[in-house]
Amino acid sequence: MEKIESVQNARLKQWLKLENKKGRQQQQAYLLDGWHLVKEALRAGIKLKVLLLTADFRYTAEFTALTDPAIETIQISTAVAKHLSGTATPQGIFAIAELPSESLAIPTQVHGAWLLLDSVQDPGNIGTMVRTADAAGFSGVVFGQQTADLFQPKVVRAMQGSQFHIHLFKGDLTEWITKFKQQQITVWGTEVSPQAKNYRSIKPQSDLALIMGNEGNGINQQLLSLTDQNLYIPILGQAESLNVAVAAGILMFYLFQAD
Amino acid sequence: MEKIESVQNARLKQWLKLENKKGRQQQQAYLLDGWHLVKEALRAGIKLKVLLLTADFRYTAEFTALTDPAIETIQISTAVAKHLSGTATPQGIFAIAELPSESLAIPTQVHGAWLLLDSVQDPGNIGTMVRTADAAGFSGVVFGQQTADLFQPKVVRAMQGSQFHIHLFKGDLTEWITKFKQQQITVWGTEVSPQAKNYRSIKPQSDLALIMGNEGNGINQQLLSLTDQNLYIPILGQAESLNVAVAAGILMFYLFQAD
């Protein structure tokens, strides 16, 4: 097995560039850090370009069953692992995965529940919302054009592999809203306003689109005017607002009910 | 007004030590970064030891109305502000606040809804849960002895000032559970297990205690055996689990209903 022990190694330097959008675009790849993410990628049949393991990585039956021996596998030193990882104590397994195509066209038919993100900025919030949408049984997440890059390390860490389970699209939210309306799917905005409706007054549905907005400024006014109805979560205490990922979780688990 | 322009300033060096638990304990103080947190502290009547402002901080009527001229106020340079702040673009206002007493005794009477945290590790999750408990109208949050320090910068940022709105206790969760039981308040655990109950089958209550556990390992088995009932959130998609702060948000907003 090839070994990389120096943090000066040329290939390692290329992989470190995957931390930045430019590097990910040029190499059409992104980094998976830890067994959970690598496992989810393998289970989903995602093409891994390279697998990186430290000498003390423990091979399990599950690892052997899932891993194609044809994947290039490189042993790395602990120093190299620490260099690559965003965490203080890396698990000693990484993979370089192919970057999925970003600009998917709107499907002809959309159904089920969809989460639309308008200008959400914090990578942890974005990743957590993708994970929660997956857990809530949503069909997909659509990222408006101002939303932060989806394959940056902090988003990938927070998604916990959910990018392999549900459809992720990048696109113009106005066009997506038009599509949902054409198919008689209710579009819910979220807004702190007297015109908005308490989410608890809504009956759960099996087809819906829910829009969440920017941490500080909420959803763009023009998009809010296109929704069927805007919702709010009543605050019973003295907090001014909820974290956007928590609010999205409360709404997704409340609003969606599978057929 | 006194000015601090050098990052070598001796007082600044003391304040930088507030990033660590030892520094906070020795100085019995912690740092508030940004107008929102300073405002919440002032509104709550919290004693501020020092107020730090950059030259371009814009004095508003609200600032003037809330700020006691007797508070020591120091002008700091932009370089000093960047040094102090955990954010890339600090707002140019900080305060050094008194550290609240940590080990409060269990009140004689407890009522309302309470969140208990057992060994939660991530500071962002801890802070977000305090903020959400505040928003959901909970009476207090109890931190088990293994939970990370409450006044570290990342927790403070995520709490968004909710530490000034609801009661925060550090204590032995077993003793707290005993107290709730003595007062006939239902204690709900959270667990991924066939013995656990779907949270949606529970009727909302005006008095309750909800325990959330460690991100990887959940709640300690001994505590789980002391609850009245353990709950789970059904996962409809392929995600293995929910982020603990999102799960806490879903449960708090579902379970608690004010009288």
Automatic annotation (TrEMBL), chains A, B:
SMART domains: SpoU_sub_bind. One of its GO terms (biological process) is RNA processing. Signal peptide: none annotated. GO terms for cellular component: cytoplasm. It comes from the Bacteria. One of its GO terms (molecular function) is RNA binding. PANTHER family: RRNA METHYLTRANSFERASE 3, RRNA METHYLTRANSFERASE 3, MITOCHONDRIAL. Belongs to the class IV-like SAM-binding methyltransferase superfamily. RNA methyltransferase TrmH family. This is 23S rRNA methyltransferase.
